[in-house]
Structure formats: structure tokens, C-alpha cells
């Protein structure tokens, strides 16, 4: 029921905004309410100004809007059309995310902004793609394909720097300790399924796949501790690789630079069993490797090849091993047969 | 375009008419984009979800029903896609849509016309500070009610909750705003927001 017009005589701006009828009128005006308020204004001219202001305030409260540009709208539409109209020729999906490195960097930034202060940032890579991530302290992480890194959005100025990794990553940690006692803020800890890696400033490779964790150290010093274990941590020297498997931690020297060469778009093999390389293809490219002859798996290979182009990589390897590589994109099967 | 023709477009789209499909896309793309951008700052993710949504309904057009409210249906499906895609990106072990683990960002602004610059900035800033403290669900409900002007029933449908829960979420959100927006300048806005949302 609407109030008597006389009730409005002494209304202030605040009271107007507080008035349900006034709000309903401003938000959903109709002929009836229009004339009702016109009458009020005519009867009490002193209300003209408060009504004008009140209307402005009510109408001004709005949500910020994110506009879809016409260009973007058309771009999405074209992508939809290419996926819906031509059935015969498989059209590649418009994966905006992977369009270019520059876009990628922007997206990473976007992902960073996405989460609330206390929520961890989680970045993962699809099959066949690497990402380089700069952590809040300036440390660099190269994430191999099919891998995930998580870390807190904001790093406490005085807290330990911590990241969680699944898959494989190469880390170049910024050295903060300059002298004497190591403060918490100078510590950097990488958590994997089984192993915690504690570092000061250094570069190393972490590989946590298939229930096995490998940590290879390029330079600096790191110590490894097992999750939940109290014992003395294991200290690695540059050139060492530590592997944790079936509850045991083992250390041996390797050529670590070669080992972590994936981050530069190359793979180096030094008398490596082919089976191991195929595991790598499954982990990193998401292909199921099928061989027609188990003997193939016993071959060994040495050499260095580029991973920039999958086709070229397979061809090179095929030539080196005298094998045929046939990729079925639909089933994601990589068929390997003897020539 | 009068609203009564939308079911006709939907029928024609289901029969495979490409023009009707385009009409639906053009009608909803911008709104979906705006809605999606509240969940994620990753614009490309939102665009991919819009693409997936429309490719999806086109592919399944023969088996789709006749939703009472097409907008709700699209928003709801789109919301699922955004969650799923975010989940893929995050790869969290535990991800429950039903808890408040997602994020929803809204920010309010005021037109320059009414209050002078400095005071406007102050009011807007304070209001947004309080808004930021609401849970994602509360913010999303407010957005759907306030901006998209959905009813409580429609909010419940889009957010996949009971109607009772949608009332409850809103009441909590408004209670919180009221409690935290009670000083001087904010008084007006608090009352204003309160009443508008309860209408």
C-alpha cells in the first residue's frame, strides 16, 4: 500500500533512499508510480532536488562489467563454427591458451591473480608443453609437460619459501643467504610425493613420476629428507642424482646438464634403454607407446635431439634405431615397428 | 527481440538452423563472458568455456530438452564448464564444487554524477572492501540477484542449490554487509543495497 502523499512532506534524501516505494519506482518505474511521484514533486517542490539525487544514487550502484569485445565475440564464434559445421575435416580447437608464448605469460599472470590470498596457486602443463614460471621471490621454474606446481600466492616475508611439484621441473632458486646463520626466509623447500628438497640457492631438476622421485643437482647444495622421516637429511653435491624408489633413497653421479636438457628443448641420451625413452614420451606427450616386438625395448641409444617438433623427434629417433614411428592422433597411440 | 520468440529460436536451433544458433550465441555471449569473468581473471579460460558451451549444445541439440528458462539453463551449464576447466588447470587433489573453494570477484562502482570525486572513491573502496569479505557463494548470489536480476528460484537453479539455501545465502550476505557498512557515508549505501536486494 502506498503512503499518503503528505507523509513525504519532510522527507530527507536519506529517508527517500530508505523508502521501499521510492526504490521500487526508481528500479522498476511504471505509469502508475511515475504519476504518483510526479504528484509528490508537484505538491512538495522542495523534494525535487532530493528525488533527483536519490534517483542518481540508486541508479549508480552497479557491478563492474567485463565487456566482450566484438573482435573476441567474432573470434569465439568462428571457432564455434569451425567445430560445428565441418565434420569431415577435424578442425583444431582454438586453444587460445597455447597460441603464443606471450599469451602464455599473460595467462600465467592471470592464473596468479585468480586465487584469493590464502589459496595456493596451481599451474599445470598439458601434454607436450613446457612453461616457465617466476616465483614470488624471483626464482625460476621450468615446468615440463604434464606436470604441476603449487605454491602460496603470497610468500611471507619471514617464512620458508615452499613449492609442491608433481611431474618434472627444473628450478633455479634465488640465493638469499649471504652470510652466517640461515634464516627461515632464506630457506627454499620443494615438496614431492615422497621427498622434501631443501635448498639455499641453486639449480636442480626434480622428477616425480611413476612412484619414483629423482632429484638431480646442477650447482649449489641441497639436502633431501623423506616425508615423515626424522633421520638425517641426505646432502647432494653438484653432479649427483638422488633417486627415491620403493622406500629407498640412492645417490649416484650422472651428467646432470644432459639430464635436465629437456628444459632447453633438447633430449640427451647416453646409452639409455629405449624403454626409458618411451616412458618419457608417455609422461610428457601423453601417448601410449605400443611396440610390435618386445626386443625393441632392449635397444639402447645415445645422442642429442631437439624436441621442438614431435614429428622430427620421432623421425630422428626412428632413423637412429632403425624403427618406424606411427602416431595415431585419434587413439593417442604411438605405434613402433621394426623396419 | 521480444522474449516470446526465444522458444521459437530454440526450437529452430534444435532442428539444426544455423542462424538461430548464431542468434542464441549473440544474445548470450556477452552476458556469459561477464558472468564468467567473476570466477576467473583468465579471459582465455572464459572464452574457451563459451566456445565449449555452444559447441556442446550444438552437438547435443537433438537430445536437448526445452528448458523453461533458457538463460538459466545456459548459465548453469556454463558455470559447470568453468568449474571443470578451472579444476583441470589447478589439478587440486581435493576440489569440491559445493564448498566455497572457488572464487568469485565482484566490484561495485558508482557513477561520478552524484557524490564528488574523493568521497565517491572512499565510499566505493569501503564498499568493495566489505564485499570482498563475503564468501564466493554470497557474492555470486548477490551478483545473480542484483545484476542478472534472477529470482531466488532461478539463483538456486543456476548455482545448483535448494531455493531455501539461496535465501539463506543471501540473508547471511546482507546481514554481513549491514553489520559492516554502518558508518556515516556507508549508511546510505548499506540501506540502499539491502533494500534493493530484498525487493
From TrEMBL, chain A:
The keyword ATP-binding does not apply. It comes from the Bacteria. This is DUF4974 domain-containing protein. It comes from Pedobacter gandavensis. Keywords: Membrane, Transmembrane, Transmembrane helix. The chain crosses the membrane at residues 95-115. Pfam families: FecR, FecR_C. The lineage of its organism: Bacteria, Pseudomonadati, Bacteroidota, Sphingobacteriia, Sphingobacteriales. Residues 123-222 form the FecR protein domain. Gene3D superfamilies: 2.60.120.1440, 3.55.50.30. Residues 266-330 form the Protein FecR C-terminal domain.
Automatic annotation (TrEMBL), chain B:
Residues 125-175 form the RNA polymerase sigma factor 70 region 4 type domain. This is Sigma-70 family RNA polymerase sigma factor. InterPro entries: RNA_pol_sigma-70-like, RNA_pol_sigma-70_dom, RNA_pol_sigma70_r4_t2, RNA_pol_sigma_r2, RNA_pol_sigma_r3/r4-like, WH-like_DNA-bd_sf. Signal peptide: none annotated. Keywords: Sigma factor, Transcription, Transcription regulation. Belongs to the sigma-70 factor family. ECF subfamily. It comes from Pedobacter gandavensis.
Amino acid at each position: 500500500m502506498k503512503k499518503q502523499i503528505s507523509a513525504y512532506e519532510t522527507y530527507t534524501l536519506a529517508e527517500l533512499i530508505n523508502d521501499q516505494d521510492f526504490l521500487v519506482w526508481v528500479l522498476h518505474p511504471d505509469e502508475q508510480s511515475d504519476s504518483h511521484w510526479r504528484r509528490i514533486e508537484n505538491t512538495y517542490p522542495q523534494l525535487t532536488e532530493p528525488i533527483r539525487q536519490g534517483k542518481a544514487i540508486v541508479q549508480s550502484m552497479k557491478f563492474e562489467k567485463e565487456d566482450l569485445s566484438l573482435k573476441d565475440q567474432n573470434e569465439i564464434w568462428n571457432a564455434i563454427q569451425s567445430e560445428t559445421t565441418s565434420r569431415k575435416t577435424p578442425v583444431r580447437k582454438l586453444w587460445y591458451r597455447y597460441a603464443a608464448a606471450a599469451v602464455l605469460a599473460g595467462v600465467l599472470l592471470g592464473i596468479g591473480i585468480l586465487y584469493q590470498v590464502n589459496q595456493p596457486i596451481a599451474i599445470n602443463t598439458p601434454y607436450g608443453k613446457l612453461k616457465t614460471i617466476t616465483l614470488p621471490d624471483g626464482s625460476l621454474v621450468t615446468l615440463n609437460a604434464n606436470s604441476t606446481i603449487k605454491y602460496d600466492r603470497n610468500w611471507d616475508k619471514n617464512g620458508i619459501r615452499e613449492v609442491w611439484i608433481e611431474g618434472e621441473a627444473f628450478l633455479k632458486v634465488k640465493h638469499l643467504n649471504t652470510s652466517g646463520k640461515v634464516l627461515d626466509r632464506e630457506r627454499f623447500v620443494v615438496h614431492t610425493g615422497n621427498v622434501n628438497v631443501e635448498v639455499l640457492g641453486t639449480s636442480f631438476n626434480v622428477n616425480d613420476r611413476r612412484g619414483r622421485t629423482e632429484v638431480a643437482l646442477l650447482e649449489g647444495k641441497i639436502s633431501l629428507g623423506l616425508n615423515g622421516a626424522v633421520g638425517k637429511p641426505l646432502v647432494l653435491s653438484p653432479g649427483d642424482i638422488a633417486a627415491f624408489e620403493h622406500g629407498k633413497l640412492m645417490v649416484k653421479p650422472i651428467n646432470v646438464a644432459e639430464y635436465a636438457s629437456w628444459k632447453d628443448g633438447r633430449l640427451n641420451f647416453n646409452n639409455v634403454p629405449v624403454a626409458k625413452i618411451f616412458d618419457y614420451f608417455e609422461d610428457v606427450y601423453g601417448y601410449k607407446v605400443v611396440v610390435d616386438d618386445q626386443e625393441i625395448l632392449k635397444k639402447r641409444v645415445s645422442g642429442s635431439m631437439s624436441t621442438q617438433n614431435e614429428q622430427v623427434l620421432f623421425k630422428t629417433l626412428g632413423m637412429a634405431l632403425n624403427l618406424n614411428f606411427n602416431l595415431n592422433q585419434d587413439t593417442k597411440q604411438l605405434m613402433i615397428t621394426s623396419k | 527481440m521480444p522474449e516470446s520468440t526465444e522458444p521459437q529460436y530454440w526450437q529452430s536451433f534444435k532442428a539444426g538452423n544455423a542462424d538461430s544458433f548464431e542468434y542464441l550465441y549473440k544474445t548470450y555471449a556477452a552476458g556469459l563472458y561477464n558472468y564468467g569473468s567473476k570466477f576467473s581473471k583468465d579471459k582465455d579460460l572464459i572464452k574457451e568455456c563459451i566456445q565449449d558451451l555452444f559447441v556442446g549444445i550444438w552437438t547435443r541439440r537433438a537430445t536437448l530438452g526445452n528448458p523453461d528458462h533458457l538463460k538459466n539453463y545456459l548459465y548453469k551449464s556454463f558455470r559447470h564448464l568453468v568449474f571443470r576447466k578451472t579444476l583441470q588447470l589447478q589439478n587440486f587433489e581435493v576440489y569440491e564444487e559445493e564448498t566455497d573453494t572457488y572464487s568469485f570477484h565482484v566490484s561495485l562502482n558508482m557513477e561520478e554524477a552524484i557524490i564528488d570525486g574523493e568521497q565517491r572513491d572512499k565510499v566505493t573502496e569501503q564498499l568493495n572492501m566489505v564485499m570482498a569479505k563475503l564468501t564466493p557463494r554470497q557474492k555470486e548470489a548477490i551478483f545473480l540477484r542484483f545484476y542478472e536480476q534472477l529470482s531466488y528460484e532461478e539463483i538456486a537453479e543456476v548455482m545448483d542449490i535448494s531455493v531455501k539455501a539461496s535465501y539463506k545465502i543471501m540473508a547471511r550476505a546482507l546481514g554481513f554487509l549491514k553489520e559492516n557498512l554502518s558508518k556515516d557515508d556507508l549508511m546510505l549505501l548499506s540501506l540502499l543495497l539491502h533494500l534493493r536486494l530484498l525487493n
